[in-house]
Amino acid sequence: MKLSRRTSWFLTVFGVWSWIIWVTFAKNLWQDSGGQAFTGGDHSRPTAFFWIHLALAVTSFLLGTLVGLVGLRGLRAFRRQRLPGLPL
């Protein structure tokens, strides 16, 4: 499959965006002071809310990383096509 340059850039930017959004989400989840993520306010007893949202964040982070890597591969292929004699 051949990706256009525009699509490759979109996928790469989406991957970077996923890193920013989901890492921030996980940090905020860990620092929850509202009592939803941890019972009793300490980090020794996580709730189901914590585990579900952590799984969501990790899954989305991994999928975003894979999408970003597909975009990077598309950009590298486009560059290789434009500059056939240069090593990458």
Walk me through what this model shows.
The protein has 88 residues and is mostly helical. It has helices spanning 5-30, 48-82. The longest helix has 35 residues, at 48-82.
Order of helices and strands: HH
Give the fraction of residues assigned to helices: 55-70%
- Percent of residues in beta strands? under 5%
Structural class: mainly alpha
Span between termini: 20 Å
Sheet with the most strands?
none
Count helical runs.
2
Number of strands: 0
Radius of gyration: 19 Å
What shape does the CA trace take? Answer: rod-shaped
Low-pLDDT stretches are none
**pLDDT averaged residue by residue:** 89
What's the arrangement of secondary structure elements?
Layout: H1 5-30, H2 48-82
Helix pairs in contact: 1-2
Brief descriptors of the model:
0% strand, mainly alpha
TL;DR?
By secondary structure, the chain is mainly alpha-helical.
